Amino acid sequence: MPYALVPALFILLMIGRIYRPRAAKAPGEPVRRHPLPLLSRLRLHAWPASGAILGVAVGAALGWVPSWVVAVFLAATAAVVLVPVAYLLTTEGIVCGWTSPRRWTEFAGVARRAGGARLQGIGGRGGLSVWLAGSHDIDETVLLLRRLVRGSYQGHAAGAASAATPDNPARPVGIASASVR
Question: Which of 10, 76, 81, 88 is close enough to 51 for a disulfide, judged by CB 3.0 to 4.6 Å?
Answer without folding.
Answer: 10
